[in-house]
Design goal:
This protein is an alpha/beta fold and about 325 residues long. It folds into 3 domains: about 130 residues, Response regulator (Rossmann fold, 3-Layer(aba) Sandwich); about 110 residues, Beta-Lactamase (2-Layer Sandwich); about 40 residues, no CATH class. Helix content is about 40%, strand content about 20%. The chain contains 11 helices and 12 strands. The strands form 3 sheets. A 5-stranded parallel sheet has the order 2-1-3-4-5, sandwiched between helices. Helix 2 runs parallel beside helix 3.
Amino acid sequence: MAVLINVLIVEDSENDTTLLLEELRRKNFSPVHRRVETAGEMTAALERRSWDVVLSDYVMPQFSGPDALLLLREKNLDIPFIVISGTYGEEAAVHMMKAGANDYITKANLSRLAPVIEREMASAKSRRARRQAEEAMHLLAAIVESTDDAIWGQGMDGEVVSWNQAAEKIFGYRADEIIGRSVAILFPLDKRDELIGMMERLKCGEPAGLYESTRVRKGGQIIPVSTTVSPIRDTDGNIVGASAITRDITERKLAEEERARLIEDLQDALKQVKTLSGLLPICASCKRIRDDKGYWQQVEIYISSHTDAEFTHGICPECAARYRFKLPDKAPA
């Protein structure tokens, strides 16, 4: 099956263009092409669509190979540029290669054209993939540095090999203080078995998963954290280290403890209180209350039986004044 290829041809000769296209078709290419012969036409063609390769004559009446190459590079386009000259000139070839041309062949030796195009297209594809990988790495590095979670890498021996800014903030260690040291420095003494178990799982390729634990800040402060640890593999699939993502959950734990205290206080309060609801029939004279069985009870008895309230008896100031008014100042002789 023919390989589809988009070819921009910088050439003033239609006959030479036809020869180039026939050579490509003969070598199992299916070229989609455009021929240009001025800087304006080339600029318009580059802006209109993407091209897999540029084939350019060296000398033309209104344009030239060097000018075409300069125009392409000024646009910062990584498209293979191949010079195809009617007359081979070693000096011209050297000049074009130094300027950034990918290859230089003569029209008398077009058998080289297809192999050169295949090679340069593969190289361009590899460069694009490498740039994409580098951009992805830069983006990942930016994400790692901007997150609020501590992220670090460690070798299979537990030695810290990378340390982001959030890790410095959470644990108090600068990168230059902890890189090269064992991650065990972050584990409280009672969590060292956890570290050993984690490393054993990593050696088997098992992620430690998300779990909550405690860690030690620089200076000895114990902090609650949620953390996940995953194995890192090389291109051959071998486990070469681990990545850890840890979040300080001190504020969340304090909030949970406060919530638990509030719930406990509320439950204690509810144990001490029962509420009365509905209509309470009460005698307007003696102030007794009729219960749900029709019996009349003193207010104190009714409330005591329906709530946890307890009564103590005393005399209010108004009643005390009234009683003093009724009692004689002196007892009878």
